[in-house]
Design a protein that fits this description.
The structure holds two protein chains of two kinds.
Chain A: H1 5-14, H2 21-38, H3 73-77, E1 83-84, E2 87-88
Antiparallel strand pairs in A: 1-2
Chain B: H1 8-17, H2 22-36, E1 43-46, H3 48-63, E2 74-78, H4 105-112, E3 116-121, H5 155-162, E4 168-173, H6 179-185, E5 188-191, E6 211-216, H7 219-229, H8 247-250, E7 259-263, H9 273-288, E8 292-296, H10 304-319, H11 338-349, H12 352-365, H13 371-394, E9 397-401, H14 417-421, H15 428-433, E10 437-441, E11 452-457, H16 462-475
Parallel strand pairs in B: 2-3, 2-4, 7-8, 7-9
Antiparallel strand pairs in B: 1-3, 4-6, 5-6, 5-10, 9-11, 10-11
Helix pairs in contact in B: 2-3, 5-6, 7-16, 10-12, 10-13
The chains are: A mainly alpha, B alpha/beta.
Chain lengths: 95, 486
């Protein structure tokens, strides 16, 4: 596997990570080596094997559709970087 | 015996007899942290005022003859568990300013059991690492040799337990993060069956693998701590609603009559000869104690590291998407637009290893690659779990090394992610299968560094694991060694 800088920049964009050109070069080599390690699993014959998403093959537990928690907005917004009047503030999205 | 040399059962007896109070015991440990942790960097936050308050509350209970075995016992909490009103950093700049608004399920249980929290321990950033070198707060050092790593990601908890800076500690294990540091620092650590301990409030790395467990100086202490941590929690959708065994009562079950599997594949290339000799000696000791040793094969175990480095990064890239600079955590200065806010907040908040894993996971899940990576890895995961299923038709427990070598030098593998990943070659398969596994000290290597024996059990057989480990520890003194200077 050989990831080029352009590939790295595309992945970084998908992951919403700012990455500079120099960083992309280094990351390209590192990620390629990790993907080479991962490629060892290609040798395994997995035809007809059911994928295992969960170690205990559990299904999602359901609960009654009832309110069970109180309003904790103030507690949660106390750790937010920027809020106003109970709202989270971000840069203007719509001009 | 000095207070910091005593195990939980002795301390609980002393507390009840009035030989010392929890406040005195807590002061003793706080003083040890103050004088010794500068050599180790095991703690990110020491919670002295809260610890003393909890200790005084425990003393009140004890004077009334109430409380349980953990009442008044000072423990340390890995900084991955949310603790209300106390910074919960996860070893990351991203959460350097994060004061958790609620307690993790495991923390809540330990509080209800009366345990005293001394502080929050250092760890690899977001639990991603095997050396504790990826922490934003600097590396933790191994008390057996401060030029060496303590392992990771629960390196701070491991070093603190080994150096007697706490009685016991909590850890988490996604690919070996309890067992590998336990091996490298000469302590006893247990990763329970997936679903046994609540993941509520335990900062998520790879949700289908993450599991909390105890790190302690003996199997007996680990049993007592696990009893205080385990149990159903409706707030964790993968928590298993099933009674918790009486781990303390099960300790005396011992080793006699157990069929223990010896994994041929674990003894190949890459295993340090000194580690191999110590682990073989420990297995012979188990045989002397009445276990039958049976050679078994886990033919797909060599695929565990490759499959893990798809599954774990994929889940990590999804879990860590929540750090967006909007609701909590680090936010960059003067963002020009929303995309800039996301991208720079994340680039500044996350360290190199975390970014690498997010990107590997993002790539593996991106359009056109899903079948080749994520689906394939989940199929390999099934092959690995099936190997164990077949093995447990023949044996009660499986034994082998925890890590391929002893503690390595700081910096030695920091620039080579793949060589670092191979530190977990014997532990990762256990997480993929969701089984319980533990590491306990074997005889030290020729240079005196600790070596870990790994024992793996069938689903929910933590009690059997602890019983076998306790049996071995009653017959040997490997777990009693203490690093010089601590």
């Amino acid at each position: 596997m050989d990831l080029e800088s352009a590939d790295v920049l595309e992945i970084a964009h998908l992951a919403r990570l700012a990455v500079s050109g120099d960083e992309a070069d280094t990351l390209g080599g590192e990620l390629s080596r990790i993907l080479d390690l991962v490629a060892q699993m290609d040798a395994a014959d997995t035809a007809g094997i059911a994928p295992m998403a969960h170690p205990l093959d559990m299904v999602q537990r359901l609960r009654p559709d009832e309110v069970h928690e109180g309003d904790q907005r103030e507690a949660f917004q106390a750790v937010a970087p920027l809020t106003e009047a109970g709202l989270y503030l971000v840069p203007r999205v719509i001009e | 015996m000095a207070l910091h040399e005593q195990g939980i059962t002795e301390l609980a007896t002393g507390l009840r007899a009035g030989a010392f109070s929890s406040e005195e015991l807590t002061q003793h440990y706080l003083a040890r942290i103050a004088s010794l942790d500068s050599h180790l960097n095991a703690f990110i936050t020491v919670t002295e005022p809260q610890a003393l308050e909890q200790a005084r509350a425990a003393d009140k209970l004890l004077r009334k003859g109430a409380g349980g075995p953990l009442t008044g016992i000072p423990v340390a909490i890995k900084d991955i568990f949310c603790t209300r009103g106390v910074r919960t950093s996860c070893g990351s700049r991203m959460l350097d300013n994060f004061v958790a608004p609620y307690d993790a399920g495991v923390v809540e249980r330990l509080q209800q059991a009366g345990a005293v929290m001394l502080g929050k321990t250092n760890m690899d950033e977001f639990a991603m690492g095997s050396s504790n070198e990826t922490s934003f707060y600097g590396p933790v050092r191994n008390p057996w040799d401060v030029e060496r790593v303590p392992g990771g990601s629960s390196g701070g908890s491991a070093a603190a337990v080994a150096a007697r800076l706490c009685v016991a500690a909590t850890g988490t294990d996604t690919g070996g993060s309890i067992r590998q540091p336990a091996a490298l620092t000469g302590i006893t650590g247990l990763k329970p069956t997936y679903g046994r301990c609540s993941r509520y409030g335990m900062i998520a790395f790879a949700s289908s693998l993450d599991q909390a467990g105890p790190m302690a100086r003996s199997a007996e202490d680990a049993a007592l701590l696990l009893a205080g941590m385990a149990g159903f929690d409706a707030r964790d959708s993968t928590s298993v609603d099933r009674p918790v065994d009486d781990y303390l009562a099960g300790l005396d079950a011992g080793v006699a009559g157990l069929r223990i599997g010896w994994v041929e594949e674990f003894l190949g290339e890459g295993l340090d000869p000194g580690v191999a000799a110590s682990v073989e000696l420990a297995v012979r000791e188990l045989e002397k104690l009445g276990a039958e040793i049976v050679k078994i094969s886990l033919p797909n175990s060599h695929l565990s590291v490759p499959a893990y480095y798809v599954v774990a990064p994929a889940e990590c890239s999804s879990n860590l998407a929540r750090y967006d600079g909007v609701r909590f955590g680090h936010r960059c200065e003067a963002p020009v637009d929303l995309e800039d806010l996301y991208k720079r907040s994340r680039a500044e908040g996350f360290g190199t290893e975390v970014k690498r894993r997010i990107m590997v996971g993002t790539y593996a899940l991106s359009a056109g690659y899903y079948d080749a990576y994520y689906l394939k890895a989940q199929q390999v995961r099934r092959l690995i779990a099936d190997d164990f299923r077949r093995a447990f038709e023949q044996v009660d427990l499986i034994a082998g090394p925890t890590a391929p070598g002893t503690a390595f030098r700081l910096g030695e593998r920091a620039d080579d992610p793949v060589s670092m990943y191979l530190s977990d070659i014997y532990t990762i398969a256990v997480n993929l299968a969701g089984l319980p596994g533990m590491s306990l000290p074997a005889a030290p290597a020729p240079d005196g560094l600790p070596v870990g024996l790994q024992l793996i059990g069938n689903y929910f057989e933590e009690g059997r694991l602890l019983g076998a480990a306790h049996g071995l520890q009653q017959a040997t003194d490997w777990h009693l060694r203490t690093p010089a200077g601590f």
